[in-house]
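Support case: zinc ion complex. Customer-provided input:
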Amino acid sequence: MNDLNQAYQNFFKSTQGKRKGKPVKPPKFKSRKSKQTARFTKGGFKVGQHKIYLAKIGKLKIVWSRELPAPPSSVTVIKDSAHRYFLSFVVEIQPEILPKTDNSVGIDLGIKTFATFSDGTKVDAPKPLKKRIKKLRKLSKSLSHKTKGFKRYEKARVRVAKFHAKLKDTRTDFLHKLSTEIIRENQTVVLEDLFAKHSEGNVSGMIKNRKLSRAISDLGWRQFRTSLEGKAEKYGRDFRVIDRWEPTTSKCSCCGFKGGKLDLQVREWKCLNCGSKHDRDENAAINILVAGGHSETKNGRRGKRQTSVKVAAANVSGALRQQNVNPPRSYSSVGIPAPLGRGGCQQPAISLIWLCLFY
Ligand SMILES: [Zn+2]
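Agent response - structure generated as follows:
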């Protein structure tokens, strides 16, 4: 009800020209097919050790993904499209600042190798979909043969949803482990604007190419960046994104000589000017680090940093065991993945914790 009120407030203020930013549309009903959520605020719930009491629902057994650091101010029950139940608590916590280090790293993201660091380390990502593509085809085929609104259709739909949920978990787990490690070990992390590559001539066909675009979404670049960003904020690290027009692949990291565009197939090349041999991705990672060093303002976001929302959005996008902190100045109403109640009001540090719920 509070959310609805806030939504209407936003809408009316917007139509009267009192609210800045994009025009706000009137609130809509949530789709019954997608994720279902319900929020309980103070007084509406009580947390026990193995159980939680929810108003009008009663006691539920719960399994914690991790301990709550402080008493929660609200809880959201989520049922995702794969019929899994989660509880998400809103908790206030202080950002913990990690001891400073002198390390910094540039990261080049790619398809063959998920991430190449400027020190030459390469990390491969699990490609959960690549392995199971046949199964997905089978499942979606079976779904397409059924009629909407019937029980068989619903069963098939849940099967597909479960399949996708599993992929997402594998991906998320990997990305979180990797990003935590990177943030712990480095003071400065520099990443290339991910969509830069697509606009470079040699890779412009990337997103149009179905196989490639599937490979890219299987990797979760965007999610990786978001979680790096959030964790940098949480632990007091410096996260930068370099300009989208910065040449990273084609520039020699030794002498700065700019060679021509490199075809995707070219993994190694030799500089025509100084003669040094480069690994394609490592060279790019070094260039990214250098570019990040001398262009502090170029964070690729045109000054509009919305980390808090992004951090929360990362949470919403299906993490099972994660915890993110927003900076103290920001507010996250996005803990509730509904289009309602995104007010611009100020609230202190907030973190979201996801828990699996068993019946
Ligand atoms: Zn050179």
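The chain has two domains: 2-94+329-357, 104-294.

Case will auto-close in a few days if no follow-up is received.
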